[in-house]
Structure prediction request, 117 residues.
Amino acid sequence: MLQSSTSVLYQLVYVDDIIITTGSFAIHVTTFISNLAQQFSLKDLGNLAYFLGIETHYNSNGLFLSQRKHVKDLLHQLNMVDAKVVSTPLTTIEILKLSIGSPPVDATLYHQVVGSL
Prediction:
């Protein structure tokens, strides 16, 4: 974070990606990017649209974050694009019992799906 008497400039760095923003004067962002470009090879991609799996949408009401693309990609990967939607997959009062004699379930896929969320 850089701060002057007139504005604050925020920087978020992840490996070789940088988000630069300020709450007020966009000229400070432009100046900062120009100064960085004098020292490093960089590409200004303009307004933020997608970063680390999160989509950003701006409108007059503010900034909105979404992981719609990530969820769609996950559904395609699992061949679940046309899966039936349910609000809760299990009743909240269900009593689970162990089925004796049933083969053990391979939890690998479950772990991958939950881990990717």
